[in-house]
TrEMBL record:
Keywords: Hydrolase, Membrane, Protease, Transmembrane, Transmembrane helix. Belongs to the peptidase S54 family. InterPro entries: Peptidase_S54_rhomboid_dom (IPR022764), Rhomboid-like_sf (IPR035952), Rhomboid_protease_S54 (IPR050925). This is Rhomboid family intramembrane serine protease. One of its GO terms (biological process) is proteolysis. Residues 65-220 form the Peptidase S54 rhomboid domain. It is a multi-pass membrane protein. It is found in: Membrane. It comes from the Bacteria. The keyword Protein biosynthesis does not apply. The chain crosses the membrane at residues 12-30, 68-92, 104-122, 128-147, 159-180, 200-218. One of its GO terms (cellular component) is membrane.
């Protein structure tokens, strides 16, 4: 299944969502410009779980706290970047609309940090740098799950040899997505040598749950401009 768009128009211009997308793209272009030195950048600014359980050094703050923020703006390739930004574009504008522009930026960053911490504590011995906006974007999806369960996600679905457009209720689409992350994340922990795919599944899970929880503190008061079929709360 590949989501194309949702059915709820944004009431305000999603300048934070668009700014985040542009910033992520610019950072990725910078990564490309580094050539072979990009691996060093990823190791320094990505989240390496084992680093958080080692003896602290003089660079404790830089080594352990800065990457929680910087890692969410780095990506491992074009597909990684485009996939994350596409989901942010679909779900971000409405969540930004519901919580407000400034609060949305804070919400996004907190979800990304929460996702990184979830990955760290579920993979404490990993020495592989984790990067990507997927944890923060998962938080946005978690917020969307709470705020807009009656929305429809226009989805491209393969049916035999053909591709079909189907409107799937957001609550079902996002629940199905979450269960995929949960089962793959569980198998990745139980059978790390067999099921490892290089994906931080528990960052997705942690981000989604953070989004569900945090949105109750960030959302605005109930508003009446939504049609009845799109009531957010």
């Amino acid at each position: 299944m590949f989501p194309l768009k949702d059915t709820i128009p944004s009431r305000t211009f999603p300048w934070v969502t668009i700014s985040l997308i542009i910033f992520n793209v610019l950072v990725f272009f910078y990564q490309i410009s580094l050539g072979p030195y990009v691996e060093k950048l990823v190791f320094i600014y990505g989240v390496v779980p084992k680093r958080y359980f080692l003896y602290s050094s003089l660079n404790y703050f830089f080594d352990k706290y800065i990457p929680l923020f910087t890692s969410m703006f780095l990506h491992g390739g074009w597909f990684h970047l485009i996939g994350n930004m596409w989901y942010l574009w679909i779900f971000g504008d409405n969540v930004e609309d519901a919580v407000g522009h400034k609060r949305f930026l804070i919400f996004y960053i907190l979800c990304g940090i929460g996702a990184a911490l979830c990955h760290i504590y579920t993979h404490p011995h990993s020495t592989i740098p984790t990067i990507g906006a997927s944890g923060a974007v998962s938080g946005v999806m978690g917020a969307y799950y709470v705020l807009f369960p009656y929305s429809r996600i226009i989805t491209l679905v393969p049916v035999f040899l053909f591709l079909t457009l189907i409107e799937i209720p957001a609550v079902f689409f996002l629940f199905f997505w979450f269960m995929i992350q949960f089962f793959k994340g569980t198998f990745a922990i139980l059978t790390p040598g067999i099921f490892y795919e290089g994906v931080a599944w528990w960052a997705h899970i942690g981000g989604f749950i953070c989004g569900i929880i945090l949105v109750f503190f960030f959302r605005k008061k109930r508003r009446r401009w939504f049609p009845d079929e799109f009531k957010p709360w």
